Amino acid sequence: MEESKFSEEVIEQIKDIIPWGLSDENNLLIDKLILNDNLKTRYKTYGLCRECYQPNTSCDTSDFGYVYWCQSCNATRFEQDFKNWTSGDHHVDELVQKSQLKAKNYKEVIEWYNYQFEDVKTLIKDKSGITYTASWYGDLCMLEWDYVRNSWKRYNPGRVILRYLHDEPDNPVEFLKKVESRIAMNGSPNSARLYGITKDPKTGNFMMVMELKHIINFRDCVKNSNNNDRLKLLRDIARGLKDIHNNGLIHRNFHCGSLSIELDHAFYIVSITDLGSSQPANPKSIQDDQVQVYGVLPYVAPEILVGNEHTQAADIYGFGMIAYEIMTKLPPYHDVAHDESLASRICQGLRPSFNCKVPPLILDIIQRCWDADPSNRPNANELYSLLYKFGFDAFFVQSSLAYRQVLEAYKINSSSFTGFKDIKLHPQAVYTSKLLTFKDLPNPQNADVDQI
Ligand SMILES: [Zn+2]
């Protein structure tokens, strides 16, 4: 289907009008000239491309001001440049080219970068791969087309992440599946941006080049958070999860270590990391009645512990545990060993206990996320809208139940809540991902916690 476009006559009449803050007279003219609602909205929101005079496909704010994007003009530019570069692997080339042709804004573009990194330091080494931080020199990342210089405007993002995945040596197809998952998240404000792909000349391994946020530790963030921070964290994590699920993806290893928290002018900005690379390709196997799962035990849904497939509902269970930790400042099951006995009790219905007053509406959301029956858990869209409404009411609507509940919890907790200060973790309480092996766990069920 051919996309509708402005005709030459329409362009002639509107090209000198600035679409923002239209006078009544110009508004009438626009309404008369542009009958296609989609084109009209794009024109009024994103303005006209300076090259083809069709409406832009996006206008984003960036650290460098507004960034306008015309998909059609930029796709043509990219296509003309395809012959000038190659990664040496046609699968990689195709994926990069696809993103460049499809991009409707600057964040959706990825590029192939020749290896131009220095001062490379290992940040995290785990089962799934190695994450490095590095300084970038050379072409740097793309922002928008510079009509004056007739070239791409680029900027230096400072230090970046280089991410190498263990399970893809000699298998770029597997690597590219993970890259595709990341590209899908590039438009989300709560996700570290993927800039492109490079190849380590020493090892020959492909690596993702990603944004490095000024990360602070999740526990430090929670420890220092106030009531407002905590409600905002809950809402923003739910939004990140909603974006993942609405892209048809499953995180599969959602725990507090999957969150990257950035402190920006006294506000916490949370991103969900490690999507699509958080576990080995075939982490779960059932052999001789044994179930093997890769994850952090307190955050793994009981149905996964007994060998079921990962689902979005299992991510929601993990969210319930993260929400528990944010509200209580206690890591779930911090005072017991994370072993088979705990896994068994979780299947029997054990859930963490609360050390403080949590607003009942939030408590109800957490407990729904923890339900042993995945179909009783809220989905990510519902979760986000519940938490968005709760946060809005608690901040702004004094007559609301949320406002009263937050105030009441605050009063009770300020007199009795000791918080995180004197928490001692059990020596066998493990909060990093590992391979968990279980046998003969009971079928998951809900239960009265006191009976377990
Ligand atoms: Zn254009």
UniProtKB/TrEMBL annotation:
Database matches in InterPro entries: Kinase-like_dom_sf, Prot_kinase_dom, Ser-Thr/Tyr_kinase_cat_dom, TKL_Ser/Thr_kinase
Matching Gene3D superfamilies: Transferase(Phosphotransferase) domain 1
Superkingdom, natural source: Eukaryota
MF annotations from Gene Ontology: ATP binding; protein kinase activity
Domain Protein kinase per the UniProt entry, residue ranges: 117-396
UniProt cross-references to PANTHER family, sorted A to Z: PALMITOYLTRANSFERASE, PROTEIN KINASE DOMAIN CONTAINING PROTEIN
Name assigned to this protein: 15858_t:CDS:1
The species this protein was found in: Funneliformis mosseae
Source organism phylogeny: Eukaryota, Fungi, Fungi incertae sedis, Mucoromycota, Glomeromycotina
